[in-house]
Design a protein that fits this description.
elongated; Arc Repressor Mutant, subunit A; alpha+beta; 19% strand; 5 helices
């Protein structure tokens, strides 16, 4: 599926308001509710839209400490070791994001924790659960924005 100007406008609007009705979405892009429904379904089926979700304010919900943790592998790093590590990390509550890096043998994760004690416990869990690693932690001082919209519309 190749996206066109209307599809990109739909994506821009959905980034701002994933709960918009198809009727209002269609009005905003100049097509019918039925046509916009078909387009959104096609973009979901094609993988352009992965999911519709709620953007929670984790700090307001009590997870006040945000940190990035680099998980640094020693010389015994393999793809299988990385997969085991990622499977382990996925099960840890508070881990919001994980990505691997090129150039260094790292996995970088973003953690939302209740307090500093919870952060330390989470890091210890990672260190004890994944063999032959070290960690480097950076604590977020102030969060300016999250999930900033990226414009895809073609002018």
């Amino acid at each position: 599926m190749k996206l066109n100007k209307i599809d990109y406008k739909i994506l821009d609007i959905l980034q701002n308001d994933g709960r918009i009705t198809y009727d209002n979405l269609g009005k905003n892009v100049g097509i019918t509710r039925q046509a916009v429904t078909r387009r959104v379904k096609k973009m979901v089926d094609a993988g352009y839209i992965r999911k519709f979700c709620v953007d929670l304010d984790h700090e307001r919900l009590g997870r006040d400490v945000i940190a990035y943790v680099d998980i640094i592998f020693d010389k015994s790093f393999t793809v299988e070791v990385e997969k085991v590590a990622l499977d382990f990390i996925t099960k840890i509550n508070g881990v919001r994001l994980a990505n691997t890096t090129v150039g260094e043998k790292y996995i970088t994760i973003k953690i939302y924790t209740l307090n500093m004690q919870d952060l330390h416990q989470t890091i210890r869990t990672i260190q004890n659960g994944i063999p032959d690693i070290s960690t480097k932690t950076v604590i977020v001082n102030e969060l300016f924005f999250t999930n900033k919209k990226i414009t895809y519309s073609i002018n």
